[in-house]
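tool_call predict_complex ligand=zinc ion
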Amino acid sequence: MAKLAGAHDLTLITQNVDDLHERGGSPDVIHMHGELNSALCGACDSRWQAPKLMHPEDPCPACGACATRPDIVWFGEIPYHMERVWQALDEAELFAAIGTSGNVYPAAGFAQHAARAGAECVELNLEDSANSRDFSRRILGPASRTVPEWVESLLA
Ligand SMILES: [Zn+2]
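tool_result ok
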């Protein structure tokens, strides 16, 4: 994905809470479900580097409240950066979903949204997802093989 970002105007949206994309060299990753490496104050929304061990009673470095939690979007909470995500979907020429079940909204609706806005939609997945019908092209197989091949085809 970092290679693709170097050659195209890429918006990388991830549901993963780890730093896999950052370690892969991708710049500007949108973590719609938050980040494990970040702590969040439930009282003032301040964020800081998460310690290895975190307790709800840890005081917030900014306001002192004992409302520490992981900076992760929990079930029932609204994912982060959605305004930026919808805008990117509106403007995309190509939308690709890689390795997702297609079960969890709002992410499961991204392909349909992008297609309506005129994007070609490609699914790269181990097997058909719950919303495979929303993609005009599907590439099945392990991401370790299909993603590098697909990226090379876009760079060729
Ligand atoms: Zn705070």
